[in-house]
Write a structure and sequence with these properties.
This protein is an alpha+beta fold and about 150 residues long. It has helices spanning about 5-20, 40-45, 50, 65-80, 125-140, and strands spanning about 25, 35, 85-95, 100-110, 120-125.
Length: about 150
């Protein structure tokens, strides 16, 4: 790819990261954050630059924080994981230490000229949705109760 095409491609990727409403985080095979969208500031309390170069486990409460390196090792040895190509519910941890529910989608990205894959995670903050579902469940059946 020519330098001008590479610059355009990088510019498009940066624009997408800037515009994304939900956090997008890319990690390498060792779990080190390679890129993060601007929305990590709003949802997680970190700036992208504060996250890049850190282990993705900083975004996880226990027990996943301690176990994450083992998950990556097992995947590199066996090629098997539960997390890829599906949305899963977890808890995440903000920079201030608060824990909140998320839906996490992770996919593998094979990049030309890289010997190891990248993993792209998209994080949906489920805090508002969970609260709305609890509220809806609390009022479920209200219309079915006998009226005095």
């Amino acid at each position: 790819m020519s330098n001008s095409r590479t610059s355009i491609s990088h510019g498009h990727a940066r624009a997408a990261h800037s515009a994304a409403l939900d956090p997008i985080i890319t990690i390498d095979a060792r779990g080190i954050i390679q890129s993060a969208s601007d929305s990590v500031r709003r949802v997680l309390g970190w700036t992208p630059n504060q996250l890049i170069g850190r282990s993705v486990s900083v975004l996880m409460p226990e027990p996943h924080r301690s176990a994450h390196d083992g998950y990556l090792d097992r995947y590199s040895q066996t090629g098997y994981t539960h997390i890829l190509n599906s949305a899963r519910r977890f808890n995440a941890q903000r920079k201030d230490g608060s824990v909140f529910p998320i839906e996490l989608s992770v996919s593998r990205a094979d990049v030309p000229a890289r010997h190891t894959p990248l993993f792209v995670g998209i994080i949906l903050d489920m805090t508002g949705r969970d609260a709305a579902e609890r509220e809806a469940g609390r009022h479920e059946g209200d219309d079915e109760r006998p009226r005095p």
